[in-house]
Every structure is written in structure tokens, then in C-alpha cells.
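Sanity check

After download, print the first record. It should look like this:
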Amino acid sequence: MQKRIFTLVTLSVLLVLSACSTLTSTRAVSVSANQSWVLLPINNLSTTPRAGEKTNAMVETYLRSRGVASLQTYMIPEGLSLVSLLDTDKEIADAIEWGRANGIRYGVTGTIHEWHYKSGPDKEPAVGLSLKLIDLSNEQVIWQGTTAKTGWGYTNLSGVADKAVNKLLKQVRIN
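Expected C-alpha cells:
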């Protein structure tokens, strides 16, 4: 009887923990760390300012830690109008074109869907994001994934985001 109760408790805990995150992606891909990479702009649809830049910093750390040495960050040209800065599709298209013109092979971009602490008594952190890896030589998306993750009341937002980015990028095998 005690064994059955222990099994039920264990399964319940695993069910609760697995409900805290989701992941959907295309098939895992293998790419070369020896190619040149660029961090493209990330579209921030959350209500948190600069969540895209925070995510780019995490992506950069993970890529470098996995052997990507030639990694640049696309910088938005100075002197752009407010209208052009708010057109994220054009901004990403310009960044892809810049990468192609500079002979860069892979570009990473994405979208932040959620990045905040939930309202309520526990104020759990919640992150939802998508990333995609683009082969800039032909502008084909070779991998794409999305995840949503929440933490418990005692965890911080950047820790939850870090785990979400790591979980996504594990789908990209870097040789």
C-alpha cells in the first residue's frame, strides 16, 4: 500500500512539474560552429521593454559556450526614423540582407510572446518565446522552435528565461 501511495505521489509531482513548460519545434538540426553567425533582432511582443535584447544576450552566451566563435550582433543603423524602427518585419529583413552581404552563414532571430511576472499572490515568472535559425545563404529557416515556461513564486524571471532559451537551443546540434 505504501509503495502504491509513493508511486501516485511521484507521478503527481512529475505531472505538475511537466505542466510548467511546453516545447514545440521542427526536427533538430546539426550545424557547424565553424561558420559565421549573427544575432538578428528579436521581435518583442511582450509588455516588458528590451526583452528581445535580454534574450539575444542569453542566446549569445549559449552559442559561444557551444563553440560558435564567429558570432556578431546586428546593430540597427543610426538615424532611422521612428516609423522604420517600429516596423520589425523590415528591420529583420534588413538585418538578414546585411548578414548575406557580409558573408554570414547563420542568423538567429525570434519573437518574445510573454516576459513578466504573473499577477496574483505568488507572482510566478512566465516566459514565452520562439527562436529560429536561418541559413542566410538561401534565406531558408532550417530550424524553428517555441516554448513557454513558468516558474514558482521563489524563482526569478531571468532564471526562467535562461532555462527556456537553453531548452530551445538544445534542439540545434552544433558540431
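If your output differs, re-run the checksum step. Summary of this record's structure: Strands lie at 21-25, 29-31, 37-44, 71-73, 106-117, 125-135, 140-150, 172-174.
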